[in-house]
What does this fold into?
Amino acid sequence: MNYMLRSRWWSFGFRSAIMLYFIILIVLPILGVYTQSFSLGWAPFWESVSDPLAWKAVLLTIRLALIATVINVLIGTMIGWVLIRYRFFGRRILNSLVDLPFALPTAVGGLMILLLLGPGSFVGDAAQRLGFEIVFHEPAIVIAMLFVTFPFVIRAVQPLLEEMDKAEEEAAYTLGASKAKTFLRVIFPTMLPGILSGAMLAFSRGLAEFGAVVLVAGNIPGKTLIASVYIFGEVESDNPQGAAAVSIILLTLSFLILWLLNVIQSRRSGV
Amino acid sequence: MKKLWITLTYAVFLVLLIAPLVRIFSGSWAEGWDGFIEALTRPQSLHALWMTFLIVIIVTALNTLFGVMLAIYLVRADWLGRRMKQLLNSIVDLPFAVSPVIGGLMIVLLLGPNTIIGTFFEDIGFKVVYAMPGMIIATLFVTFPMMVREVMPVLQEIGSQQEEAASTLGAYSWYTFWHVTWPSIRWGVIYGVVLTVARSMGEFGAVLVVSGNIINKTQTATTLVYQDVENFNIVAANSVALVLAAISIGLLLLMEWAKKRKEVH
It folds into this structure.
C-alpha cells in the first residue's frame, strides 16, 4: 500500500514536470510574441507592419522561398526517384549525402556559398563578366534556401516510392501505356502526397531561414533584406515590438502551412 | 534515358553539395597548415568551440530525457484524453515552423532585461539573456521536436502489448521501461540524439539573438564564423567552419549507422 502510494506520487510529479517543461519551453514563448506585438495596441502594431521596408521584406521572402520550393520540387522528385529505382555506382554515398544540409550548421552552408560564388571566385567572376550578379543579390538567397531545404522533398518522396507496388506500374506498361503515360498516370499520383508535404516543409523552412541567407544576401533594405534578417535588425536596434509584429506575420504563415500539412497527412493515413 | 537521369543526379549533388564542401576544405588551407592552426588556436576560437561543446552536452542531455518521457506520455498515457493528445502532438512541431531568429526573440521578450521575470533573475544575481542560460533555453526550444518525433513512431509501431504483459504484476515501472520499452526504442533514441547534437551544434539564429554575440563570453562556433565573415577574416572563418563541417560529416555517418540499426530491429 505504502509502495503504491509512493509510486503514484512519483508518477504524478513526473507527469507534471514534463508537462510544465513542455508548456514553459514551447507554448509560453509563442504566446509571448503574440501578446508583445499587441502590447501597445493596434496602432503601433499596424505601424510596424505597414512600414514599407517591413512588408517588402516579407513579400521578398515569400517570393524567393516559392522559387526555391519550385526548384526543390523538380530536382527533389528526380533525385528521390533515381536513388530508389536505379542501381548505380555511388548510390549509397549519394543517398547518405542527401542529409548533409541537415547536419551542417547553416552558417557554414552560407559561408560555403559565399566562397564558391562570391567575388574573386571562379563562378562569381564568370557570372559577373556575363552581367549576372549572384552573391549579395537575389540568386544567392534562392541558392541558400535551396541548399538548406534540399533534403525535404527527397526524403518525403522516397518512402512512398519504396512502398509502391511495382505490379501496378508493370501492369500499366504491359497494357500498352507508354513510359511517359505510366509515369504520369501511375507513378506520379503515388508520389504526389510526398511531393506536396515535402514542398510545404521546404517552403516553411525557406521562409524561416536565417543563417545561410544572412551571410550571402547583402541585406540591403528593400532589396535583398529578407524577413528573418529584418527581424534580427529590429532586435539589434532595440525595437523588440517592431520585431515581434513582423514575426507574427511570418509565424502565422508558418503555422498555417504546418496545419495544412497535418490535414494532408491525417487524410492520407485515414484512407 | 536511365543514364541521363543518373548523370543529372550526380550533377546536382556535385554542384549543390560536393563543390561547397571541397571549397571549405581548400579555403582553410589558403594560408597553409600554419594559417589553419593559427586561426583555430586564437583565444576566441577556443572559447567559442568550448561554448558550443558545453551547449551541445547540456542540451542533448535535457532534450533526450524530456523528449523520451514526453513521447512515452503522448503515445501511452491514458490520463490524457484523445483530443488533448492530438493537440499536444501538433504543438510539438511548432518549433520547426518558427524561424530561429524568432525563437531567439521570444526568449528575449520573455526573459530579457526589461521583463518582469528577467529583472527578478537579475536581482538574485542570475543573468539569463546575453548569457549561457538563455543560449541553452534557445537551443532547447529549437531542438525540442527532434527526439519526440524520432521516438513516437517507434513506440506506436511496437504497440503496448509487451509492456502490458510485463506490467500486469504492477504499475508501469522502471523495470518495465528498461527491460521492455528501452530495447525497442534504443535506436530511435540514438538517432534522435545524433540529430539533436547536429542541430544544437549548428544553431545560429536563435543563439545569435539571445547571446548578443559577445566575444570571449557568449560567442559560439557558428556565431564566430559569422563575425569572422563580417570582419572579412575569411581564412579564420573557414578554419572554424571546417572543424564544424568535419564534425557534421562524422554525425552524418553516425546517422547512417543508426538508421541501419533502426531498420534491422
Chain A has two domains: 1-37, 42-270. Residues 2-37 of chain A form the longest helix (36 residues). Residues 1-5 of chain A have pLDDT under 50 and may be disordered. Chain A touches chain B through 80 residues (CB under 8 Å).
